[in-house]
Design a protein that fits this description.
Length: 518
């Protein structure tokens, strides 16, 4: 992997993590506030509304990923006319999908509230919340093409800045509305205002950044449609199955265990979403780079990129997963309330068994997208989703929330531990043994001392406040840092020495300036 490529990944990841830190930090502080003001049932209904809208994201049709892949390829070789044709076609298709969304709003309002078993007293509010949130989604769906363009150009600094602004403004409105006694309809209306404003900024910045882009909204020719659908058609299936894997659990819980149980499952799932987002901040930077490398036939650098991306993902995901596994119940109790600690904490522990492998495979997914091997991946994810849903339905009546969680974990382990590593190594013609050693086993060895420390801490030191919990983690993290340096010293030492040389040069420059002044 070239130095320039590593630099691009590093800079993009820093911006993604900055935006993600703002999102997670604000959501972390805001979630208990929202739960307290909406109550168990109100929060459960709000979660179901958002889960329903999440299914509508299937109307993306995989176009954002396709735009990122093709624009990054064409931009890297200066074919701006082809990039413009791709973007124009994607927008034309998106406009058709928006019309479908708007036409379907009355149907959703009429049937969704009853189908989700929402209590009678909240059905009207739920219906209007669904309608307003659907309009917000329609705007996001249209403007998502422009987000894909910025991603293709690796302008994650701009995307991150827009996301941070959107999260901050949304949070301020949520606090004000709930403090004033408003409910889920007001939250949906504020979300719509924020979405309109932030996406307007996104479109303006994208057009200013990629000035060679020429957009003409008209029916695209068959060649462009064939090119888009050859990639995005399978992405649609992958996204559909992903929705089943990650969002159907809330619906299964509502249908089989009652809407009042949704909040307990959703809180456990929301904690894990943050961990996936932290890793996706790395993975999303790999797609445009991998597409460029594939376009120029540099397979050796693709192999390096896979190892680099997987190791980076694991160094982020493994310590988070270990800490949550041993300290998760305490964390949930302090974060949301003691009544959530046991049920939500138990669900989270089960989901974490496969979560660490899911997030560690993020680089593999992006490599498969870049190599246009999505047909095979769509089949695998479809099987996983089918087994997931079937197991969750079968296990939920007997084992409750834990049964739904196990229905997710079992097929996920098979896919991410057995299937995906073998396939990507075969595709890139690299040693499975070396990939597992460098990408998985060495990061796991680094995290073992930290895991032992978390286990002991969970037995002998239980924090009573969130501040004490934060201090708890701060004292444990140096163990991970020390083991990282000791086990990976051969790789860390050159960068350590480079850092010392850089500091020495700066000190020498400063000393020279002082002497001249004297």
């Amino acid at each position: 992997m070239s130095i320039d490529g590593r630099k691009r990944i590093g800079q993009s990841t820093v911006w993604n993590w900055t935006a993600l830190a703002a999102t997670i930090g604000i959501t972390f502080v805001l979630s208990p506030f929202v739960v307290r003001h909406l109550g168990h049932v109100g929060y459960g209904v709000w979660t179901l509304v958002n889960s329903l809208i999440a299914y509508m994201s299937l109307l993306d049709l995989g176009l954002r990923g396709a735009v990122t892949r093709f624009v990054s390829r064409y931009h890297s070789v200066g074919e701006h006319a082809e990039a413009s044709r791709i973007v124009s076609a994607a927008l034309w298709i998106r406009f058709l999908m928006v019309l479908l969304v708007l036409a379907g709003i009355p149907l959703l309002m009429k049937f969704a509230a009853r189908a989700l078993q929402i209590p009678q007293e909240m059905q009207v509010a739920a219906q209007w919340a669904i309608a307003v949130t659907s309009i917000s989604f329609a705007v996001t769906l249209t403007c998502g093409v422009f987000g894909g363009i910025l991603a293709a150009l690796s302008r994650f600094d701009l995307l991150g800045s827009i996301n941070i602004g959107q999260v901050v403004v949304r949070a301020l409105g949520v606090v004000w509305l709930l403090s004033a006694g408003h409910g889920i309809v007001a939250l949906a209306l504020w979300e719509m205002v924020v979405v309109f404003a932030s996406n307007g900024v996104l479109v303006a910045i994208t057009l200013r950044t990629y000035r060679q882009l020429s957009i003409v909204i008209k029916r695209p020719d068959k060649d462009i449609l064939r090119q888009l659908w050859g990639f995005s058609g399978y992405i649609v299936l992958i996204h559909s199955c992903t929705q089943v894997i990650y969002y159907t659990d809330n619906l299964v819980v509502s249908a089989l265990l009652g809407v009042e149980m949704v909040a307990f499952f959703a809180i456990a799932g929301s904690v894990l979403v943050y961990a996936r987002q932290a890793v996706s901040a790395i993975g999303v930077t790999l797609l445009p780079i991998a597409s460029s490398l594939d376009a120029s036939g540099r397979r050796d650098q693709l192999r390096d990129l896979l190892v680099l991306g997987t190791r980076a993902a694991n160094f982020v995901a493994m310590p988070i997963s270990i800490a949550l596994f041993f300290l998760g119940r305490t964390f949930v109790g302090l974060w949301v309330g003691p009544e959530y600690a046991e049920p939500s904490g138990r669900v989270m522990e089960i989901l974490l068994i496969s979560q660490v492998f899911v997030v560690g495979s993020n680089a593999t997914y992006n490599m498969i997208y870049a190599l246009n091997k999505v047909r095979w991946l769509s089949f695998v994810v479809a099987v996983e989703a089918t087994v997931n849903l079937a197991l969750s339905i079968v296990l939920a009546p007997k084992f409750g929330l834990a049964g739904v969680a196990w229905g997710t974990v079992i097929p996920s382990l098979v896919v991410h531990v057995v299937v995906l590593p073998r396939y990507i190594c075969s595709t890139l013609e690299m040693s499975l043994r070396q990939h597992l050693l460098q990408s998985w086993i060495r990061p796991a060895a680094v995290v073992v001392p930290f895991g032992c420390a978390c286990f002991l801490a969970s037995r002998f030191w239980v924090p009573a406040t969130m501040a004490e919990f934060a201090w708890h983690i701060a004292l444990l993290l140096p163990i991970f840092g020390l083991s990282f340096v000791l086990i990976l010293w051969k790789e860390v030492s050159p960068r350590f020495h480079d850092g010392l040389k850089w500091c020495n040069r700066r000190f020498a420059t400063a000393a020279g300036i002082i002497r001249r002044i004297d």
